[in-house]
Amino acid sequence: MDLGISGRRAIVCASSRGLGKACALSLARNGVHVTLNGRDEDVLAATVAEIEKVAPDVEVRAVAGSVSDQQCQQALLDATPNADILVNNNGGPPFRDFRELDRDALIEGVVMNMVTPIEMMTAVIDGMAERQFGRIVNITSISVKKPVLGLDLSSGARAGLTAFLAGVSRSVANNNVTINNILPGFFNTDRLRDSFNASSKALGISVEEAAAARAEQIPARRFGEPEEFGEACAFLCSTQAGYITGQNLLLDGGVFESAF
Ligand SMILES: NC(=O)c1ccc[n+]([C@@H]2O[C@H](COP(=O)([O-])OP(=O)(O)OC[C@H]3O[C@@H](n4cnc5c(N)ncnc54)[C@H](OP(=O)(O)O)[C@@H]3O)[C@@H](O)[C@H]2O)c1
Questions:
Q1: Is the CB of 191 under 6 A from ligand 1?
Q2: Quick one: residue 148, left, alpha or beta (phi over 0 = left, psi -120 to 50 = alpha)?
Q3: For the whole prediction, is pTM greater than 0.85?
Q4: Which atom of ligand 1 is nearest to the CA of 18?
């Protein structure tokens, strides 16, 4: 299917690896010029090269730095004038008992997973509305709907983001600007693999056993592949998806059980 977005420009935050990278790859394959971001410059450069190879006709730019940092945000905006698409992503805070979170840690988590995507959205939304095309996709988490003890800060900040954008999304729908969230369950990325290493150490089992135990809890009996995530993101950014806004798309292989 032609997504109708060839030649559009996208900022994809936190996109040198994992789900963000998958979104950038899918957008680039659909002809979108992409600006990538990540803190590790070598990894970022390797991802730029990979996407240029896969999609030689698109422009691939890169801004190294933390997207939580406002200078980095400005550099992303400067590298992508008149952005048509914004994919908000960031690292997530590590698993931590909520009792260990002091005020600085709490604020850092809220800045990471709520304030930063709101700042990026605010910077691009009026231009999108004027140009009568905009697609904003936020990578949040299944933990917004299904509690995960130890990820309480990330869940709370992302739920705050979701509620904040619920109203905003309706305010720009008449300008063909959409805002949607994608909620990953368990996707096969470095972050997920790191969690198996942690479980392996904590439970005294092998990494393979930790991964198998987790997969067993998923109705699909497997982890999601980042490519599956990227394709869903690209569709939400398509011309055809202009009537989908303010939604939370759960990609979890059936983990979250509900009839509606
Ligand atoms: N994978 C899952 O199953 C899953 C499930 C639920 C929620 N999530 C959430 O989805 C998001 C992406 O997860 P993932 O699995 O793709 O993680 P990942 O494999 O660890 O990749 C994270 C990417 O973000 C970049 N990054 C991290 N912090 C950054 C920052 N401050 N500024 C700019 N770039 C940054 C990383 O590059 P550098 O380290 O070089 O900066 C890397 O490119 C996270 O917020 C995670 O909590 C993932």
A1: yes
A2: beta
A3: yes
A4: 16
